[in-house]
Every structure is written in structure tokens, then in C-alpha cells.
Amino acid sequence: MTSPTPTLERWFDTMDSTDPDRVLDMIADDFAMSVQFSRGSGQSTEFVGDRAGLIAYLEQREKSTLVHHIMVGATVDDTELVLGQTTRDGVFEASFNATAQLTDNGLVRRLLICRTPEIDFA
Questions:
Q1: How far apart are CA 112 and CA 122, in angstroms?
Q2: What's the predicted TM-score (pTM) here?
Q3: Would you say 8 and 23 are in contact if contact means Cβ atoms under 8 Å apart?
Q4: What architecture (CATH level 2) is domain 6-116?
Q5: Where in the chain are the domains?
Q6: Sheet harboring 91-102: ordered strands across?
Q7: Distance separating alpha carbons of residues 17 and 39, to the nearest angstrom
Q8: What is the pLDDT along the chain (122 residues), one digit of tens a residue?
Q9: Which end of the chain has a smaller Cβ tally under 10 Å, C or N?
């Protein structure tokens, strides 16, 4: 079965691996991102920037602890959109939305990820 969002599927598979830095090979030269990361109860952090911002995000992130599960996704023109959830040891941790705008050759040009433990779409 072919994924409707192959780039985001590969992105999150890479992020869940023991070598998440490989996502740096998936970004365009003019990459820009924002990751809105809620811990719940109004406690949140935003990670923003270009390649250097993604590197900073990767450096502070736990490796190989969370698993991303894409529940539904769609591609519209050059943009992939997904709704999913993360689990830790098989237990729900948070819901997330991700939107990736792609270049003509499939690199991620823009990335917006929002996550919260406050809502479970399951």
C-alpha cells in the first residue's frame, strides 16, 4: 500500500530511529520550521528556524523513545498534511498535526508541527 504522505511518513520513521539526524538530508536549502510543543496544562515551547533551528531541536530531543503513528494524511499539490499520535512504551503521549511543503524534488521546504497531550483523536 502506498502512503498518501510518503515524505512525512519517512520523516517520522527517521525521527523515531536511533539516527534522527538523517532528517537533515531531507530538507531544502531554504528550509524553515516551527514546532509547537505542548507538555499540557498550558506549558509549551516553540522551536523555530532554518537548518540550524532543526539541529537545535534534534539536539534537545529524546532519541528512540517516542513512536509517531500517522492516523490520517493527505497530499494537496506540494503539501503533505497528517494527524497522528505519539506513544511512549505503547501508551498515548500526545496528538500531533504536521504540515510539510515540498520542493519539486521532494525535499521539505516548510515544516509546521503542533503537538499536545490534551487531546486524543483515537
A1: 22
A2: 0.94
A3: no
A4: Roll (3.10)
A5: 6-116
A6: 43-49, 27-40, 108-116, 91-102, 79-88, 66-76
A7: 22
A8: 678 999 999 999 999 999 999 999 999 999 999 999 999 999 999 999 999 999 999 999 888 788 999 999 999 999 999 999 999 999 999 999 999 999 999 999 999 999 999 999 98
A9: N
